[in-house]
Design goal:
It is a single chain. The chain is an all-alpha fold. Helices cover 71% and strands 0% of the residues. The chain folds into two domains: 42 residues, no CATH class; 46 residues, Arc Repressor Mutant, subunit A. The longest helix has 19 residues.
Length: 105
């Protein structure tokens, strides 16, 4: 990307390229991944330039997603592992797992 390209769009392109690399490693060459990520960001810029785009934090969605992941990974004895993995306290993990058990009863 050109040096005068907006930093937010450069970040978007880099994030997209990184995720594509993770998902498509070995299936697409690095230069193809960079080309695709640049094209997608440029399409976004062309279609939405000048528009005020608000990207919500989606805190409730993120919280629900994290709780769902904890519940899926819970095996009955890995509370401490989940604390480290999700940066939660032991009491938070117990509460999350307990709430799921109560919901399924």
């Amino acid at each position: 990307m050109a040096t005068d390209y907006p930093i937010a769009l450069i970040d978007m392109q880099e994030f997209l390229a990184e995720k594509l690399q993770q998902k498509l490693a070995g299936k697409l060459a690095d230069d193809e991944i960079k080309t695709i990520s640049c094209e997608v960001v440029e399409m976004m810029r062309a279609n939405h330039s000048g528009e005020p785009i608000y990207i919500p934090k989606a805190a409730s969605w993120e919280c629900k997603n994290t709780h769902d992941q904890i519940r899926r990974k819970f095996n009955g004895a890995n509370h401490h592992e989940l604390c480290q993995l999700f940066n939660k306290s032991l009491s938070q993990v117990y509460r999350i797992v307990k709430n799921k058990r109560q919901a399924t009863v």
